[in-house]
UniProtKB/TrEMBL annotation, chain A:
Protein task: Part of the Sec protein translocase complex. Interacts with the SecYEG preprotein conducting channel. SecDF uses the proton motive force (PMF) to complete protein translocation after the ATP-dependent function of SecA.
Protein name: Protein translocase subunit SecD
GO CC annotations, alphabetized: plasma membrane
Limits of the Protein translocase subunit SecDF P1 domain: 155-214
Pfam families given in the database record: Sec_GG, SecD_1st, SecD_SecF_C, SecDF_P1_head
Family: Belongs to the SecD/SecF family. SecD subfamily.
A biological process from GO: intracellular protein transmembrane transport
Domain Protein export membrane protein SecD/SecF C-terminal as annotated: residue spans: 352-520
Subunit structure: Forms a complex with SecF. Part of the essential Sec protein translocation apparatus which comprises SecA, SecYEG and auxiliary proteins SecDF. Other proteins may also be involved.
UniProtKB keywords: Cell inner membrane, Cell membrane, Membrane, Protein transport, Translocation, Transmembrane, Transmembrane helix, Transport
SecDF P1 head subdomain domain ranges (all copies): 245-349
Organism: Megalodesulfovibrio gigas (strain ATCC 19364 / DSM 1382 / NCIMB 9332 / VKM B-1759)
Domain of life the protein comes from: Bacteria
From TrEMBL, chain B:
Name the record gives this protein: Protein-export membrane protein SecF
UniProt similarity note: Belongs to the SecD/SecF family. SecF subfamily.
Transmembrane segments: 15-38, 164-182, 188-206, 211-232, 238-259, 290-311, 317-340
Keyword Nucleotide-binding part of the UniProt annotation: no
GO MF terms held by the record: protein-transporting ATPase activity
Principal subcellular localisation of the protein: membrane
Domain Protein export membrane protein SecD/SecF C-terminal: residue ranges: 111-172, 191-341
Topology in the lipid bilayer: Multi-pass membrane protein
Gene name in the database record: secF
Subunit organization: Forms a complex with SecD. Part of the essential Sec protein translocation apparatus which comprises SecA, SecYEG and auxiliary proteins SecDF. Other proteins may also be involved.
Keywords: Cell membrane, Membrane, Protein transport, Translocation, Transmembrane, Transmembrane helix, Transport
Amino acid sequence: MMQSLRWRVGLALFVAVLGAIYLLPTLSGVRNSPLSAVLPDSTINLGLDLQGGMHLTLGVDMDKALENNLSRRGRDLRDEAREKGLVILRPTVTKANTLEFVLTKAEQQGELETLIKENYTSLAIQQSVALPDGRVRYVLGMTPAARGYYEAMTLDQAVKTIRNRIDQFGVAEPDIRPQRDDHRIIIQLPGLKERERAIEILGKTAHLEFKLVRDDADPEKARLGMVPGAEFAILKDKLPNGVEREIPIVLEKDVVMTGEYVEEATTGFDNMNRPVVLMRFDPTGARLFDKVTGENVNRRLAIVLDGVVYSAPNINERISGGRASISGSFSVEEARDLAIVLRAGALPAPVHILEERSVGPSLGQESIDKGVTAAMLGGAAVCVFMAIYYGMAGMVANMCLFFNIYLILGGMAAFGATLTLPGIAGIILTLGMAVDANVLIFERIREELRRGLTPRAALNEGFSRATLTIVDANLTTVIAAVILYQFGTGPIRGFAVTLTLGILASMFTAVFVSRIMMDFWVSKRPDACKSI
Amino acid sequence: MGLSFFKQEPKIDFVGARFICLGLSALLLLVGLASLALKGGPRYGIDFAGGLMIQAKFEKAPDVEAIKKVLDSLGLPGLVVQSFGQEGDNEVLIRSGQTELTTDAVKTQIDQALAGLDNAHEVQRVEMVGPKVGADLRNKAMEAMFYAVLLISMYISGRFEQRWWAAGAMAGGLMATVYVFHQFGIPTGGLTVLLIAVSMVLCLYLKLNYALGAVVALVHDVIITIGIFSLLDKEFDLTTIAALLTIIGYSLNDTIIVFDRIRENLKAMKGEPLATVINKSANQTLSRTILTSGTTLLVVACLYFFGGGVIHDFALALLVGIGVGTYSSIFIAAAILLALKPKADAPTEQPA
């Protein structure tokens, strides 16, 4: 008896020490002390609902991404075909995400199809219709494999860009994860205070394009789509006196250069002391910029960001060295944010905010305070009741209760789990449910005593019979909690974790630890059990 | 030195009271379902319906009517303004249905509108759920409820009747049903209801009596809780679902303890009528039931009264569900068991 008691006490102490080892790093005093070197790194994290912060679900506009990709391929195909003497007209992207164009000479069909097969493996010819005038209309679609690959790549790139932008923002421990199935990105930004700015920066596509200006064309005609190869746009300009104005402008449809070559972006001021964004291109970009400016001296080059023309300066001379600047109608703050998004790179496709949950830091603190108050009061009420109802045995149950909470917290720290407001509720609920196992055992012991068993026999019988019931009864709650974890998000998962840990801990404390205490007690005072 | 509710084992005739209780349950179920039907289904919170919610704290006690008047001009669809939390918190919830605008634009508009109120405010919480995410969350919640019921009834069948093959057959049957009806594109909500019905029929057919009793009891508890939520005009969101799953777990926990004792007593009291065995078992476990439900309700009540506004509805669901769950494990689950007569060799009882 005493022999087995010894190893059981040993095991209980071992678990207690293990709990302490995992729980200590969570205390800030310990974390900053030399002791932290030998302790594990994982701590209990506070959920966004407790420390304040932001949860965002972004949807990546995959249709738009595919459309961009197809249109770029269309341009490439046209250029490449031209080099081989094949003439292709108007490659356009349809709503169904296919690429359509017309080949002017039917006899070149074979040559064109070889070109597509050899150089454009991701495209498949879906349809080729011979038109009465000797031309052939083609419909090309992306192969499913290429599409899947492209979608995955787009999502990855979007995640990378967003991570870059958030890094510039300086959030302590951001969590960014892609959801591949539905092209979503889930972002958690704990402790973030500037929610508007975050949304602004994350949502900007930052698709930077350089397009030549068609000063000879009439903007009104371009607006009606009557100027081939050109498009209508609005130039936003801010006068030095702060008045904003919108100037109609005509741009060539073709993009001469995109923002993908931007290597660095900073803010500065132009000679009129207006904030500007200064960009430096990478070597390829520098070469391209040199060529474009050299070929188009005395024309105007529009700088288009997400469809808005910011400025359209005149190219006075060839610009070498790979530097450019965007001036225009923005404040210092806006220029800084623009530099951030350019530095971090463009999103491969527009993103939309599908879900947002932000909690201010003051509400988080209030939630903690209220949760702790509720837990204290609930715990105290249960303890007082158990002590009155079961006397000494009730005190044993109370000690188990404390040990239980301690183990929940230790377990949470060990798994690096997140404590959320529903999680606190889970702990509180466990307080009530944890005594259940003890009550089952005690009531059983009382029954056995009433049947006339000796205290020690009643104790044995009570524990062994109640244990099976306890396991049965608690497993169903664990099943429910595991399912909650599987299907839940954020705070709900926190609840599932505390509930599961709470039940597992309560089974251990009630069946194992309380048995030790009761055995110890009965061995000192054989009749003590009668007073349960 | 300890106290006890009962010096002797109580002799309450639970089985005799079962028709009154079944009537009471039927009444509660009907009232709840009627309320749901009249209101056109459960009132979804923004988690499921999509929409925008802003929680703002004011310096002085806010005048909800004045705030509503100020915000009305913004033309937000389905605008609701209500005070939130306890008195003295000076908090209001501003809600709007699905909008095409981004949260940012709406929030800025609301901020500007409230700024004219001569009552400084601070936005504490912003939640926006788009319609697509809302539908996804709704489906996920339904799936969670379904899998909980499925796994738990499998566990009980296997564990209580040692008939894991029957449990497996049931799982197979349910999976097949899911597959077939999925092809027809039945929405997940309808599917869940259907599946729970199918699982009950399967339990009945496979004579998984304990599982059926437990499942009926937990469906009873969940529907009554949903009905009471509907009567009180409370909203359903993710935390309500968490509460419902917890109630399922708790309801079963309670039921299993009574069932365990019935099983034990069936062996010990061979020859006694089933009604007597059930009565004795319920009486033997009664003080435990009162005690644990009591302590659990005690702490959940603390959560309800002191836990703060954000957790209020969650605590309410638990309070109702745990109360109903305790009652159903004695009166409903056992009554079902009696009607089904587990064990073919159990003697038929005298009419009660």
